[in-house]
Amino acid sequence: MKQVAILLTLALPLCARDKAQLKHDLDQIAKTATVMVDGDTCQRILTPRALQHILQKDPRDEWAAGDNYDVDDHAFITTKKTLMRLAQLVDYPVDVNLWMPIDGAPDRIHIVIRNRYEMSQFWKWGDLTQPMPPLMRSVLEDGKRVTVDQKPQYISVLAPVRNSLNDIVGLVEVVSEISPNPRENVK
After folding, report:
1. What are phi and psi of 95, to 5 degrees?
2. What single-letter DSSP state applies at residue 164?
3. Strand order from edge to edge, sheet including 168-177
4. Nearest of 15, 38, 27 to residue 145 by alpha carbon
5. Maximum CA pair distance of the chain?
6. DSSP H stretches of helix in the chain
């Protein structure tokens, strides 16, 4: 009987979570992120050099934009630490990712900071920028949190990031899996 109890205790975190509770938890983290993530600091993460190259396509070097992607270390680390702490508000895997629109390209967005588990319903591996999904645009325009479950195994909550002038300068994606796969990133 002890062995069964131990097995259930170890296996419980691997089981599917209650979807309603997961949505509630992620929404609470997203709500907290809106007041904790400093939009002014987020706006300083990308260097002018990186911004200059992020939208340019070099026909001789498809990876040139990535090679020239650099950040302000202090702004990046400060924001990443905040996002990592927010992800620890629950006792199961959660990522809190930072997304920001690109000046001069209102139809594009990029993921500035991804986190530990590399979960996202929106990020495409290897893409520095991508077309702005309508749900992200609505958060940037309306400032309201949006719950997303467009990929069956994930739930995300998108929430605005504001600067000191109360302008929406980006958004966070708080994301987790309904049924965690401990071997997903082990190929």
Report:
1. -115, 145
2. T
3. 130-131, 105-113, 95-102, 168-177, 154-162, 146-148
4. 27
5. 66
6. 2-11, 19-36, 39-43, 48-54, 64-67, 73-87, 134-142
Mean pLDDT of 155-170: 98
Q: Give me the pLDDT at residue 12, please.
A: 43
**How far, in Å, CA of 147 to CA of 131, rounded?**
19
CATH architecture of 17-177: 2-Layer Sandwich (3.30)
Return d(Cα 73, Cα 53) in angstroms, integer.
18
Q: What angle do CA 92, 30, 129 make, to 5 degrees?
A: 95
> What pTM, to 2 d.p., does this model score?
0.86
Residue type, 164: S
Are residues 136 and 161 in contact, defined by beta-carbon separation less than 8 angstroms? no
pLDDT in tens, 63-107: 766 677 899 999 999 999 999 999 999 999 999 999 999 988 999
3-state secondary structure at position 180: coil
Say if residue 4's pLDDT is above 60: no
Write the CA distances from 167 to 65, 72, 109, integer angstroms: 28, 21, 17
Quote the pLDDT of residue 117. Answer: 92
